[in-house]
Specification:
two-stranded antiparallel sheet; Arc Repressor Mutant, subunit A; 11 helices; 57% helix; 205 residues; alpha/beta
């Protein structure tokens, strides 16, 4: 399904840890591993350390039916880059791959809600979650090209797309496309969320 969505993605499939290790030995340029938590009765989280011996910078995206505190907490302790649950659409899996490939993190809504509950339970405040969100925003912002940073700043200054096009000497269609990419990278839906993100990043006061 993912290959049909995006022909640029190439996949290797493994049903056991040994098969996965063999693939990684022979393909050290692999960037991402999409890993289930339950693999033939064994926890896939136990495989991560061995995988990273072969590919130290391997990004791990957990793709699982489990969205409870116990499993998400255990996964976070393994320094994963993404966590998505199996009730998501295939497009969200593709989005997660794109985000972690750019050096960002990606957790779907179900995982984020549990993360907030975990932090609130441990600290009785939202401070750590807010810090995590700012960190995630910053990591996503770092994937912007210089041109996307320009457009982001002007959007944060509440310029319209036609104004931005004129200021930058671009077509309005190009600006609209860049705006769409910015929204996707930051995981936001509208101008209000963009302004909040810009303030958290310190782009505007």
């Amino acid at each position: 399904m993912l290959s049909k969505e995006n022909a640029d993605l190439q996949f290797y499939n493994a049903s056991t840890k040994d098969e996965a290790l063999e693939i990684l030995k022979n393909n050290s340029d692999i960037k991402n591993a999409i890993l289930d938590i339950n693999i033939n009765g064994e926890s896939g989280l136990n495989f991560i350390d061995e995988f990273r011996v072969l590919v130290p910078d391997l990004n791990i995206i957990i793709y699982t039916m489990y969205s409870d505190m116990l499993h998400i907490d255990a996964a976070l302790k393994k320094n994963i880059q993404g966590y998505i649950t199996k009730d998501c659409e295939v497009q969200e899996i593709e989005k997660a791959i794109q985000f972690v490939s750019c050096g960002s993190m990606y957790y779907n809504k179900a995982a984020k809600e549990v993360m907030l509950s975990l932090i609130s339970k441990n600290n009785n405040s939202k401070t750590d979650y807010e810090e995590l969100h700012v960190q995630e925003l910053f990591e996503n912002y770092k994937t912007f090209t210089p041109k996307e940073q320009e457009v982001f700043l002007l959007l944060a200054q509440e310029k319209n797309t036609d104004e931005i096009a004129e200021l930058l000497g671009k077509s309005e269609k190009t600006v609209i496309n860049q705006k769409s990419i910015i929204y996707q990278k930051l995981g936001i839906k509208d101008r209000l969320e963009l302004l909040r993100a810009a303030r958290k990043l310190g782009v505007i006061l």
